[in-house]
Amino acid sequence: MNFIKTDVLDVYILEPKVYGDHRGWFFESWSTKEMEAQGLHYDFVQDNHSFSAHKGTLRGLHFQKGEASQAKLVRCIRGTVLDVAIDLRKGSPTYKRWVAVELSAENKRELLIPRGFGHGFATLSDDVEFLYKADNPYAPATEGSILWNDPELGINWRGVQNPIIAEKDGKAPLLKDVEGTLGFYYKK
Questions:
Q1: In degrees, to the nearest 5, what angle opens at C-alpha 27 toward C-alphas 38 and 110?
Q2: Domain boundaries, the chain
Q3: Residue 132 annotated among the catalytic residues of the structure
Q4: Which of 42, 62, 95, 119 is catalytic?
Q5: % of the chain beyond a pLDDT of 90
């Protein structure tokens, strides 16, 4: 597996080694051994699978507060998404910076997002299936969100301007209105 550092601290793009022949292809999508060889230690405890029927669907920007925060390993297994992670860890050198990566069934890339990040994605095709590994169980009482088009963040959603969103995501607060309640801190 190829580990690519992004411009946002501790976020990695993972590119698997794909072995193909006349029958199709095979690759490892997760390997504790490979991760630990890179100094990355995660114990994923939950897998999530979502389906979005229409291009232009946006899910996010979501997070869980404090100790319930989740690290995630995400990938798109059908269609194409623009996946976004924003650093919400106070004291981090990349605090409030975001990274956007195209993930698709074709490129087989994954994005590794540590705890203390907001996360969301926009579908760039119809009929998208998206998988998430999480290192903490979902805890609804700690759930939070940030408005997808918060002007302070200035996320470039690559042409998705009037997304199909959940009602709660359309009413999400701005980062400035929730940043004092996040409970995320950068640890060197």
A1: 55
A2: 2-181
A3: yes
A4: 62
A5: 92
Q: Which residue has the tokens 């924003």?
A: 86
62 is a catalytic site residue: yes
Count of CB atoms situated within 10 Å of the CB of 123: 26
Per-residue confidence (pLDDT) for residue 180, from 0 to 100: 85
Residue 186 pLDDT = 81
The pLDDT value given to residue 161: 86
Domain 2-181: CATH architecture, name and number where available: Sandwich (2.60)
Q: Find the length of the chain.
A: 188
Q: Could you give the CA distance from residue 97 to residue 116 in angstroms, rounded to a whole number?
A: 12
- The Cβ of residue 105 has, within 10 Å, a number of other Cβ atoms equal to 15
Instruction: List C-alpha distances in Å: 175 to 87, 108, 111, 132.
Output: 11, 31, 23, 24
pTM given for the model: 0.95
Q: Where are the alpha helices (DSSP H) in 28-159?
A: 32-37
Give residue 141's Cα distance to chain centre: 20
pLDDT mean over 104-125: 98
Which residue out of 22, 54, 132, 186 is catalytically annotated? 132
Cβ atoms of 117 and 87 within 8 Å: the answer is yes
